[in-house]
Amino acid sequence: MLKRRPNGETDTGQAAIEYAGVLMLLIFVGLVGVQLGLVAYAAQQAGTAARAAARTASYAETSMSADAAAKAAVSGWLDAGIDDMSTTSEAVTVTARVKVPEILPVFDFGDAKRTSTMPRD
């Protein structure tokens, strides 16, 4: 039902504009939730890459490099690599990084980094 104001104007279209504003807010909140999920997933994948690289580097004889093992251990659509690798006579420590994918250009989360240490073979 149209409501008329004393000057004769109506309120047509006001509900549609309010609905569009609320809808945009809900979409933004949903995308923020997905972005935070991607941050957590990238951190988990960085840990997997670090463990795989350290495990591969700890073997005395291996045909695969630690960097190749780190890249093979993560999902193919993620950019992964090794930042640092240190070797002692008893252990190998590897720091792996995974670039956090961006859905919203407003936020920049950079790289997720994880470190893993494995005893040498």
Automatic annotation (TrEMBL):
InterPro entries from the UniProt entry: TadE-like_dom
Highest taxon of the lineage: Bacteria
Q: Answer yes or no on keyword Transmembrane helix.
A: yes
Q: What is this protein called?
A: TadE-like domain-containing protein
Instruction: Indicate the transmembrane segments per the record.
Output: 20-43
- TadE-like domain boundaries: 13-55
Keywords carried by this UniProt record: Membrane, Transmembrane, Transmembrane helix
